[in-house]
Specification:
It is built from one helix and 15 strands. By secondary structure, the chain is mostly beta strands.
Length: about 190
Amino acid sequence: MSKHTYFILLFTFFISSICHAQITSLHEDFSTCNGILPAGWQQYSVTGSDTWTCTAAGYTNKAVYMNGYSGANYNVNEDWLISPLLDLSAFSSPNLAFWNRTKFNGSAIEIKVSSNYIGSGNPNVATWNNLSIALAAINSDIWYYSSNINLTVYKSQPFYIAIKYISSNVDASLWRIDDMEVYENALS
């Protein structure tokens, strides 16, 4: 390997480490959400003009929400809310939990995990695994606690958690997310 190639690789690793700092735990109550998502969180709109944003109508205080109904129209949207890069290697059995609420008819959100997302840009270029999660019933308009979502299989390398939202020109659910956390689940 030439010195030039080595320098480029080292520089790329250094910049990547700075730009995509890892966090070793997650407890996000979105209380700092004031029109701008909390540090490390990002939203990415693949399709449509509606995006994940902050709301004062959370479970405990503020939350994030996505709604594909705006301007008196149902809008075609594909929007992602992506966590900071998580390094949960210190956990024995990490589990995910969060509060969620939905109103109006439309698609359920999807909760996904990726270890090869680069930390910015279109998430569809990365590989994402769906997590099997019980969510609030569509149009129930009640807060539902999704918990015991086992992340142990993903803890061997840093990864992102994403919430993918879809709406169409015929329906659009409003989804709210609050108090997202990773906790240690005692092994049986």
